[in-house]
Amino acid sequence: MLKTSPLHHFHLALRSIIARKTPKTSFVTPFKPGMKPGDPGRVELERSQRSKRLESLLRSSEALTKSTPICAAPSPVPGPSNSTLKTSGFWPQKFSADELQDMGVDVHELSQITPEVAPFYAFNVESTDSSSTVLGPTEALSHLLRSGRTLATKAWVQNHWSMILWKLAGMVCLDPTSESVPSKRRWCWEEVIRQLEHRYDRELAGGQRPALRLIAAQDAPAAAPMVLCVSKIVWPDQVTSVQPSRPPSKKGKGKVVVADPLPQLEVTDGWYRLRAQVDETLARACKKGTIRVGRKIAVVGAKLDSQKKDAAEILDAYDSVTLVLTGNSTHLAQWHAKLGFQMSQPYPFIATLHKLSADGGNVSVLDLVIEKVHPIAFLEMVPTEEGESITEGPWNEAEERQRDDAWKARRDTAESKVQEELSKRWSRWEGFVDRLERLSSKFHTREDEIAPDHIEDLFDELDCTDPPDLPAFFRKLNPRDAGWLARFLNAKCERDRERAGDEIQAEVNEKCPPRDVRNFRIVVVRDATPSKRAGRRRAVVTIWDILSLFVSEGGQAGKIEVGQRFIMTNLKPKQPKAWMEDDLQRDSEIYLCTKRNSRFLRLK
Q: What spans are recorded as compositionally biased (Basic and acidic residues) (predicted)?
């Protein structure tokens, strides 16, 4: 009889007392007052959370770590003027070349200053004994080292010497009146040294890395919104390539065509430079002069193309790292825009439909309003005997339900047949085991004894023997072989039953392959905030896998209504030949579709 300890009885008694004295509590809602679904507080909380998700989506801020703070642009350098470009009262080309010359500005000299030429420029400074001293980047490095800024290197000084001189040359032409005031003069050795010291203290001593340095080191995403300045445009020689003839010939021959060369840009964040690869849309803008040296461009959704797997320091990355820009995610920035990452704007660089091009690549961000919604449709990829696939459809939801029900019925039938075949096989093997065990009644082996090699051959022979020939097969077996064969069959039955699920699935998939069906919905959209010069362009957007899209918490899958407003990201152009020109007088349409990384955020 099982004995229990007094301590066990004590715990049982204590539980019964607690159960009698503890009153039953009524249900208490888990929601705080005013925060139930539908309450104003809950609605405001959801709106705030959506706003935070949108801000995170557009900024890609999750990759920008606190350990390497990212600045939208360098802070105003203390010096002749701390006013910003926007509030300075000046603008580009305010003064003509003749006017600048009359003000004492050497326009010819300043116009030759580029980031490539600047390292060879030096200032001639007159000393008290009427002699002159040449001061260039070598002397600037010596000055920094003497002042205790020992992290400065020759390459670092030459890079920033170039960028500072290029910037100051432009500032002198923008504000030539300051050059006549010694305390405000920019084109001088003292101003260059002051800005070099500021950059050293901020970057090398302070650890604040600018945009392109973070991107080259792969510590920040190249897709983040930023403003860059074009510092050089390189046009390659015209190249000859072989393109396939239309329609392609079976022999693989093609026609020789002369391809228009695409330029390569050099862009800068004001601190460092990188090469940039462009597409046809940006190449056309370069040919027209819309994009030229000195112009600022707003970029979002760029990609980093590196010849090396590992991250690189920016001064070593010029020949191995390239930014890939697309026309639909790039536009001109204002001349006074700050260079670098743009983290202060909640919705930076939203494209508009009238600015998109069919060959302009990925569209990073759009702000759209739904004008028309088409029903959900389905397409199916059906394999052929040749190993290829053909597309069937589209069809509506009702027809898809019928097709899916018919496929499920075929699959259930195939699965039942496979299960029946396996059951018959196992029953047959179990019958063999019974006969073999009777034949091997006096068979005994040690636990560690291994079966003879020919037992598996005997099993293959037994499994292929027709029922009329089975008696002859069993008569020729000796008790030892019969015992080993019975043991082999038992083990095989157990293994097959354990793997039955996978075997059934494989055979059913072969007889009735899974369906490859994609659902989509087509919507017609317009810009939520069209520009003044925009035409009457609309976009026909194909939203793939619409049934996995939920535009609101607890909403119906794939439900989109007319009038709803969305931030849509990562769309790509489709049907380029069907795109219509943007026209102020008549409606026009373009065609876009979603990608796997497309995101929708509903705005209210």
A: 398-408
